[in-house]
């Protein structure tokens, strides 16, 4: 099998899964087996491209020319492969989790859910493999459209309102800013193809490039930079597996991946450093990090707290890209991976708590660690990953981001990152600590287990369904594994910067 065939398979496997899911709709076990098998096959295909990409081999596929210089084409480069590896692996795990959650929670329209999930992964592969901005934009918009029905899955008025915010912000920013930036890039550079070091000729007006950079930063609404972040908390009306898809597997990761790729392969680090707008966009990202952390601290609904935490953590990735240093870009790319594993684990735990204990508010979780020890241990590990401290992989990405601020001599931003890390300790760590060491909440769990706990007797274990528990265990172990063995991603990042 040649390398170009692998690219085609990477794009087609999720679409074949969509067909298989529809054909097996009446047989739940077969339907879900199709998703698991497709996810495993996709990950195997993506992983098989790792060696050739590290060796610098060109892997490309050309589908069709739309206009002169504007083609639907794909090329595998290191950062795109990194994104595809994370997304394809987490598709397997999220599918496993969703089997337990969707059945345990009695969700309707499960075939539609798994079908749209497969289509979303197809869109992600298109974004990851895109050779140029035109191809990327096509799949970027497709990702928005196919995740919208997932956000509104419940069909309630609240879900539809959240879906409207989701769609209006993402389509509004992409059409109003992102598309305009792509057209301007074509006119200025004469190409839309990604190129290491950037595509703009020396002497291109710094003022024009500043405007262009602003359009890209605000146009990639999936990166959730303030003030275009409202869609993310609004989308929390979706089922927890969808929240995992939005925060870790596809949507927000597509946003920050696009921004990082634009910074590295449309502008280039040297050009980025010379643009006047870079400085104030850096501080905008910094403000977004700090404000979102403060808002997260005030949220009592668990999923909303995690949503604002995501807004803050995406700011880290944006800031790292805009620092225009090698360490900053490395930290930004690493944080895509580390945040994916940490945040998906946190959402898995939130969903497990909902299914097993029917709790959604943080104040209701005191003492729940006695009944859900596996879930809350995973929550603790994932919290440490998001904070960025051992024994988790988040340590590496936060370290490189701090090093990036040092290289750029951005002392205020360094202090801001430190302050945000302290805030993340404040809004994440108390949850698992009170779950294990706090007394039972005022709202309480079942009276009998609570009474037994007060008497020092055993408390009944009441975890989520086994598939969900296995999934959150895998991602929690992944958070620790990434501290010990980050090289598989680090080597890709160094090859792509």
From TrEMBL:
UniProt xrefs under InterPro entries: CPA3_Na-H_Antiporter_D, ND/Mrp_TM, Proton_antipo_N
Primary location recorded for the protein, binned into one broad class: membrane
Topological relation to the membrane, as annotated: Multi-pass membrane protein
Stretches of the chain forming a coiled coil according to its record: none
Localization terms from the record: Cell membrane; Membrane
Residue stretches spanning the membrane: 6-24, 36-54, 79-101, 113-130, 136-153, 165-188, 200-221, 242-268, 280-297, 306-324, 336-357, 378-396, 408-429, 469-493
A GO cellular component annotation in the UniProt record: plasma membrane
Occurrences of domain NADH-Ubiquinone oxidoreductase (complex I) chain 5 N-terminal (ranges): 71-114
Keyword terms, alphabetized: Cell membrane, Membrane, Transmembrane, Transmembrane helix
Residue stretches making up the NADH:quinone oxidoreductase/Mrp antiporter transmembrane domain: 130-423
Taxonomy, superkingdom: Bacteria
Family membership noted in the UniProt record: Belongs to the CPA3 antiporters (TC 2.A.63) subunit D family.
Protein name (record): Multisubunit sodium/proton antiporter, MrpD subunit
Organism name: Microbulbifer marinus
